[in-house]
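User: Hi! I'm a student and our assignment asks us to look at how structure tokens line up with a sequence. Could you show me two examples?

Assistant: Happy to help. In each example below, the sequence comes first and the structure tokens follow. Example one:
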Amino acid sequence: MITKMTTEQLAKNIRCHALRMTSRGQSSHIASVFSMTDLLAVLYGEILNVDPQLPSWDGRDRFILSKGHAGAGIYAALAERGFFPKERLETHYQDGSNLCGHVTTKGIPGVDFSTGSLGHGLSVATGMAYGAKLDGKTHRVFALLSDGECDEGSNWEAILFASHAKLDNLMVLVDYNKIQSLASVAETLALEPFAQKWKSFGWSVHEIDGHDHHDILTTCRRLPFETNKPSCIIAHTVKGKGVSFMENTVLWHYRSAQGEEYKKALEELERT
């Protein structure tokens, strides 16, 4: 548990790190990082049972960032938690660095699985949770998905199996920011009635404000929601949250903040 800063301060630090990292490397997906930042801050600040000094400890909770294109956010969260020095973040997206644009486990303590191709994280998390059950282990497995990647059929196979296997040690959070790479989710492939679909597959589901730290924390502390059922939190979020001109725009899925845009974005984040 973090004792020297609130989860709100942790979220601010993650956003500022991620902006600097993606701007320095001229990489994409800063708006995707910002929409999930408050979820990451509460998870790494209060919920996940992990030890930065023992990143491979067998009893730790597992966490998979399935929306791997937002890797800058998880790197920043891990650095803030002490898994590696914050100075290492300066190498993000640079030649020869292990801190790739899409999250990788190679050489990065605290990362449980490399992701990038969407729709794979939940399947792996489901396998991890199933294996833990078979081995009689008590740790939990968390997966954070984007809404857009729920277009992938592989997710729905995992959702079906997790319920069948009664994986109440599996926790999914969906970053439901309503925008994917080139258009809104509704225009690309509509998900609604989204919560009802998860429920109909046998999951226990709660919807929250994905930027309200009290809402996130109190909901996560209730996990698992029901015995013998996997849990899903649908977090309603804002793409680009925290920077006024990035919020709710498709443009900032790929755009990298440079020059005056970078300065203005950093000023807004540092004022919060």
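Example two works the same way, sequence first and then tokens:
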Amino acid sequence: MRIARLIATRLVGVVVVLLVVTAITFVIFYLLPANPAQLSCGKPCTPENLARAKDFLGLNLPWYGQFWAFLKGIVVGRTFGTGAGAIACAAPCFGYSFQLNTPVTELILTRFPVTASIAGGAAVLWFVSGVAGGAIAAVWRRRAADRAIMTVAIAGVSAPAYLVGMLLILLFGFALGWLPTGGYEPFGDDPVGWFTHLLLPWTALAFISAAVYARLTRSELIDQLGQDYIRTARAKGLGEGAVIMRHGLRNALIPVVTLFGLDLGTLLGGAVISERVFSMQGIGALLIDSINRLDLQVVVGVTLFAAFLIAIANLLVDIVYGVIDPRVRAAR
């Protein structure tokens, strides 16, 4: 019951956040000097064609009417224009790309499996390796293992994602020929091809992000191992492994889980650099291509979708807090 109340409360917060993000995005892309009708008018754009484009897109309405139509389209769908030339956009309608003649929602759903595959595998890899590395470094502090792990972590933090990706392609793709250098295979078509095509993007992202997690886990675990409750656990005769895993690491993971939720939500909204380097057509590539084409409807739709994923990731983090920390559960 307590968990259900927590989820309901957080869902209300998610809706409020999404409304605020939607309003800000709407203001930035539709109410500032940029003119979506001008971009959709084509060439030559006569005054008559521009007026028809404004009417078709609903830009002849006052700003609050446009915003309401935008929100209504997300909930119940939307129709652009009237008569035989009208274009229906089913809910949730994040807009319609008149350049690609496709609803933005369909574009996002078509590209999302690619981005989800990259983000999901990389997240598992960087979380496990980062936490394990940080824990080992904390337990063997100031020893050779600690110095080696922190040296690798500094290299990971310092290295740009595109550079790591290109070095991996050069080594494992061209020099050794072990793995494909780019592209994507759907899991349903070829599971082995799906894995081999994603291994390099996973490794590149994990190398960079795991470094941050290793450093954070190390500092948090060192702090926890110096607390009074850890000394009490040892005085009661609890084994060192149980002290570290059951008490120290569990509390040290709270900020790590917070960071993990934010990183995963952000990455699901588009692994822009990795998708470009490894020639994968995910949401990040869709966003970059849309910016280059000035396709504002797609830019707005992808921005809102990314905000939705980050809000959901934060909701999941709040739920996980109660699982790993009894103090948080009791406070609720």
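Here is something you could point out in your write-up. The chain has a mean pLDDT of 84.
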